[in-house]
Input
Amino acid sequence: MFDGKTILVTGGTGSFGRRFTRYVLDNTAAEKIIIYSRDEFKQWTMQNDFLKINPAYEKRLRFFIGDVRDGDRLRRALSGGVDYVVHAAALKQVPACEYNPHEAIKTNINGAVNVIDACLDTAVTKVVALSTDKAVNPVNLYGGTKLVSDKLFIAANAYSGKKDICFSIVRYGNVAGSRGSIIPYFHELINKGEKSLPITDKRMTRFWISLDEGVQLVIKAFSVASGGETFVSRIPSFRVTDLAEAMLPGCGINEVGIRPGEKLHEIMVTTEDSMTTYDYGTHFIIYPQMFWNDRQKVAPGGKKVEEDFFYSSGTNTEWLSVEDIRARLEKMGMSGAD
Output
C-alpha cells in the first residue's frame, strides 16, 4: 500500500509520529516520509535518534518545519507529490486548552480546516486524522475542539468532487506509556520513593492501547477507508487501581478527587453512533450518517451492532488483571522503579 508512496505526518515528532515513522521505514517500501511540525529542536532530536538507529533512514526521511495554523506552509509541504497524510498535530493537554481556549481552537479546529483544504488542493489521495475518546460527549474544551475537527474531516468527503481522495478518522484514548499519560507519571513517583500513588477516583477505568496497536489501526484505516469512517479498536479495559497495584504492589492509594474535565470512563462508541456502527472483530467502524459520493461504502465482513450498543471502558467485556497489566508493563520497561 505504501510502496513507492510519500507520506506526511503532521505533529510527527510526538510519540505516535515516531512509532508510525519507524514502522513505515522498517516495514514498507515507501519512497519518503515527511515530518511536519513546528518545533525545530524536537525535529533535530528525532532526526539524530533515527540516524543512530539506522543511517540509511536519511535517504527516506525528511523534516519540514511548519504549523498547521499556516495553510500556505501546509500547501508548500504537500506540493511535492505527497500521497498520504496522517494528521496527528493537536494541542492535547486538557488544562492547557482550558486556560488557552483561543490557541486550542486555532490549532485543533482552524488547523484541521487548513489540513483539509491543503489536501484537497494538492495530489493527496488518503488522509487519516487522529481523534480521541474526549471528542465523544465532550466535557472539556479539548474534547470539544476534537469533536469539531472530527466532523470537519468526515464532511471533507463532500468536497472531494471527482478527485480520488478520502478522509477518515481513527479514535482511541490515552496510549499506554505515551508522554503525559498516567504510566510515566506513576513511574516517576515510584522512582522518587513514593509509597502511595494518587488516583483521582477509585472507580476510574481506561482502555489499554499500545503505540503499536495505535499504529496498526491507522494502517487499517489507510487500507480499507473509502471516506468518512471512524475506526475504533476493540481493546481491553483496566481499573486504574489495578494499574497502581501492578506498578507498586501493596501501595497506598491517595484518592485526590476527579479533575475538571475528566471522565470516570472512556467512551469510544455512543448509543447514537450505534445506528451506523459495524463490528469487524478486531475493531469497530462508525460510518457517517451521510454519504457524499459513490466511492464511499460499507466495508464487507462487518456485523451491524444493536442500536442500543455503546462501547465504554467501564462496561467492556474484556479486562486486564493486575498480572496482565504487569506483564504489559514489563514489555514496556515500566514495571516499577528503575
User: Anything to note?
Assistant: The chain has a mean pLDDT of 94.
